[in-house]
Amino acid sequence: MGKFLNDVTLGCISADRYDRLESLLLSLPILPEQFNILVIDNSKIKKSLERVVEVLEYNGFLVQLVELKFGKSMFRLRQELLDRCNTKFLWLLDDDVVLSGNPLQAFLDVMDDAFGYLQGSKIDIFNRDNVDDWKIYEKYIKITNGRIPCWFYQYDVHGVVDTCVADCGNIFINVPLAKVVGGFKYTGNQSLKNRTGEDVLFGARIASRYPCAYVSNSIVFHLPRKQARFIDKDPKWLWDTIVKECSSEVVERLEQFYKGKFQWEK
Question: Whole-prediction pTM value?
Fold first, then answer.
């Protein structure tokens, strides 16, 4: 059995995707390290994860399951993970990703107290043809065997590079620093707080204060939902919040990164 990492918690939010969540959690014993696991269950119909917990605890993990009433916003759920995390570092994974090798090790190799977060790669598997969820320049896309388009990051980047873009599907967060900048708490119009974009706001907020890096070889594969659409992500209200709260340098870098990607006007 591997070493227990006292300073790392894996955090995950689940919402009616128990099959994929179980697949992810049951794959964790292949990692050479054990750590704390915190799962926030925001499902409409609850299902027991007792068997999964037994397997994980048998393999040396410490597991905490928290059930919240269905319908909480992603801002609220992400912040719940941050508030309940009792370790210095929080590794956030979505409940619809699968591991590729040991993505945690890539973070552990370069983690430093100075980093606000370390962002890994998240790669779509079998994305639907002719559906442009993300408006991305061709230079950001690389097709590999099995029709696996790499999106959101440049896959040909090697090593650790400066970034201000965060995706909570595979991100390693310095918890104390994240709390200093307000974490995932939404500070804008409360009538809009159920919208997504919490990872974009968090990334811009913390990158305005602390060094944040993209670690290209920390890779997970994403299993996209059949009807997933993101054309309303990052609407004007979120951009206005970013401009108001974040440094001009980060705003400029985000503007360049997202140029042409989303169907909205500032």
Answer: 0.86
